[in-house]
User: Fold this.
Amino acid sequence: MTREIIHTERAPGAIGTYSQAVKVGTTVYLSGQIPLDPESMEMVSGDFRAHAVRVLENLKAVAEAAGGGLRDVVKLNVFLTDLGNFATVNELMSEYFTPPYPARAAIGVAALPRGAVVEMDAVLELDA
Assistant:
């Protein structure tokens, strides 16, 4: 199968040696998103919720560029520098996703790129 590189200006450009997403067949692998504003490439201001919303909006933009949406997420990985923010992640998931919810992992980490407090990546499965 061939790989298709997915890119959109509606999400932050890569800050390293990776693509925003790679599509193979009907599966799309979305790279991790941190709370960068796609226009300024600067971290958003505000509380944890504002940061997590920006991350989800970035993922949504990449998913849409791939021809899908958050409804197509089958696996979501959430990386948190403070697991005390887990309840907010659950609240936001109920706003951005509908049942049946995707499989998910929430992982506590010591640090994230650019001092981010949250990062998320995802796998989409698109209709054939």
About this structure: The chain has one domain: 3-125. The helical segments are 48-65, 86-96.
